[in-house]
Structure formats: C-alpha cells, structure tokens
C-alpha cells in the first residue's frame, strides 16, 4: 500500500519567515496530493492540493510543488503569521473514492 | 470548500454503552464517506470507507461489529461505537468526497468513555 513520509515533525519559524514541509510517497499510481491544516480540537481543513499533471500550484502565501519522478511534494508558506501555527498533514491518494494516506504531520509554530 | 458537519462534537458515556456519531455533507452529495480516528499528537488513522447504499469496507484491525457504519443517503453516514470501553476514547473524524478528488473533513467528535 501507499506509504507517505513527512518531514520535519516539528518546525519553528519567526513571523515573516518562510516554512517548508516535505513529503514523499511510494505508490506511483497516486495522482492527488492535498495538504491539510489542523488546529487543536478541530477537523483538518483543506488548504491546497495538486494533481499529478501539474508541477506547481500557488494560492496567495501558500504554494505546493510536485516532483512525480522523485515521488515527492512540498508545501511552502511564505511571510508566515502566528495564525499559521497548527499541525499540517500531507496526503496522497489515487482517484475519487479512494481513501487518503496521510503523513504523520508537522507541528508548525510561528513566533512573533 | 464544501461543508461537512458532525454531531455530536463531544460525548461522554459510560463503559458498555453505545454511541452514535452522525456525519453530514451539507452542500454536496457525498458518494463516499470515510471514518478516521485520531489519538493525541498522532496522524489520522483510516477506520473504514463507506459508499452510499453499500456495506462499509473496514481497514485491517478494525472490528466491524464494534464500529457499525451506515451510509443510508448521499448526505448522511453514521458511526456507532457499540459497547464502548475506555480504550475507544478518541477523536473521530469523518470526511466526505464526491465525484471529484477532494475530500472535506468534519469538525470531529471527541468521545470519552468512562
């Protein structure tokens, strides 16, 4: 089955700096790669996703890159703010109707 | 994004009782719903996948007789934890997916079994 690895497990940055979280996956049939933000006591919130026919996608301060050959994808957050502090999960799946395979999460702390 | 609700948001019950958790997709038809559980500071662990009108598919190690899943309509799935015990205490989260690839998560249900 699919195995998704995520690094780092914790990340602390100063407000205004950039944060990068990296994930690798094992199943070459995976073609959908979402990123979720989870705040304490809440469900995960989809923040950005990328599909296998795209190499990069950006939405304001958030961007995701995908390298299908190397089977890795990354989340980039620029100009970080304290409200970006949360746990971020990467995931991979095949097609609609397939469950997401999650990484173990990255706890991001943005200090003022 | 689409909205998925869960009810209740938290529940405390006595050991041996059963608890039902509802998951609703409010503004789209969910052909597939997923149930996850999450322990503190850990990732989400898939419990089962359910398609409307079909029996749920359970992940290895998840007891189907203990965690009953019903997906009666395209907007509602329920998870019933039968004869709950303290080790069942966890954060239960559902997600819903339509015909596209996106999955949207509910806010979660905190179950505490005394």
For the report, how would you describe the main beta sheet of chain B?
Answer: 7 strands, mixed
| Integer average pLDDT of chain A | 94
Overall geometry of chain B: globular
Strand residue percentage of chain B: over 45%
The tally of beta strands of chain B, per DSSP, is 11
On the 0-100 scale, what is the average pLDDT of chain B?
92
> What is the number of helices of chain B?
0
Helix content of chain A: under 10%
- By helix and strand content of chain B, what is the structural category? mainly beta
Count of separate DSSP helical elements of chain A:
0
End-to-end Cα distance of chain A: 41 Å
Approximate shape of chain A: globular
Find the structural class of chain A using helix and strand composition. Answer: mainly beta
Biggest protein-protein contact in the assembly: A-B, 22 and 27 residues
- SSE run of chain B: EEEEEEEEEEE
Radius of gyration of chain A: 13 Å
Q: What composes the largest sheet of chain A?
A: 6 strands, mixed
- End-to-end separation of chain B in angstroms reads 36 Å
Structure description:
In chain A, 0% of the residues lie in helices and 54% in strands. In chain A, a hairpin with a 4-residue loop joins strand 7 and strand 8 (72-77). Chain A has strands at residues 4-7, 10-14, 19-25, 32-38, 45-51, 56-59, 62-67, 72-77, 86-92, 101-102, 106-111. Chain A has no helices and eleven strands. The mean pLDDT of chain A is 94. Chain A has 112 residues and is mainly β. In chain A, strands 2, 4, 5, 9, 10 and 11 form a six-stranded mixed beta sheet that branches. In chain A, strands 1-3-8-7-6 form a five-stranded antiparallel beta sheet, with no helix packed on it. In chain B, the strands form two sheets. In chain B, strands 2, 4, 5, 6, 9, 10 and 11 form a seven-stranded mixed beta sheet that branches. A four-stranded antiparallel beta sheet of chain B has the order 1-3-8-7, with no helix packed on it. Chain A binds chain B through residues 32, 34, 36, 41-46, 49, 51, 89, 93, 95-97, 99-100, 102-105, and chain B through 1, 4, 6, 31-32, 34, 42-44, 46, 49, 51, 93, 95, 97-108, 110.
